[in-house]
Design brief:
Layout lengths: L1 H27 L7 H12 L2 H27 L2 H32 L7 H34 L11 H23 L7
């Protein structure tokens, strides 16, 4: 049974790759080919824009900061304690994973609104993030044991007393992420 699942997955990926390949061949052939020099000029012009550089540096920095804790914990703590921290961190970042689609919408929205409406819409966004985070806090407070048993096992019950703090950490991380998206959308240096 396990081998048939692997075969089905591989077959699905292969079929998807072939469909994408033929679809790309059909539609890319319609475009006018450009020389390598023209293409490199276009890429250089796009990458040299201040906004693109700000976005890339901000994204790379934020991604690094969101993962450096797990890297440090793996080197400093025992494998058991690192596993407990990884589980706790997953619960904390779950708040961010749920609110991440909101950031994508906010990014588009904030790049188009006028400066005078910034504060009002940012307040609405932060209120929405706060409501979602309160829901996670309540969920972790009342159903933390069940969540740990569903996602992990009884071995991870040691993180139960600090699960509410994971919701708080996730909230702060979500707010930081939302502010980062806002500053990038508004093309401000505070994104760094």
């Amino acid at each position: 049974p396990v081998q048939s699942i692997y075969i089905a997955l591989i077959g699905g990926f292969a079929t998807q790759a072939l469909v994408m390949y033929f679809y790309t061949l059909k539609h890319v052939s319609k475009f006018k080919p450009s020389t390598n020099y023209e293409l490199s000029q276009k890429i250089t012009r796009i990458l040299s824009q201040k906004y693109v550089l700000l976005s890339v540096v901000s994204l790379v920095t934020f991604t690094a900061l969101s993962n450096v804790d797990v890297i440090i914990v793996k080197r400093v703590l025992s494998s058991f304690d690192a596993g407990l921290y990884g589980a706790w961190s997953m619960f904390a970042k779950l708040v961010t994973y749920v609110t991440a689609p909101l950031y994508a919408v906010l990014f588009i929205f904030f790049s188009r609104i006028e400066a005078q409406n910034d504060r009002k819409y940012m307040t609405y966004s932060l209120v929405g993030l706060t409501a979602i985070s309160i829901a996670f806090y309540v969920l972790y407070s009342y159903f933390g044991k069940e969540l740990i048993l569903i996602i992990f096992s009884r071995d991870f019950m040691r993180i139960l007393p600090s699960l509410q703090k994971a919701a708080l950490f996730g909230y702060l991380y979500s707010v930081t992420s939302a502010l980062n998206y806002y500053f990038v959308a508004r093309r401000k240096r505070q994104a760094l």
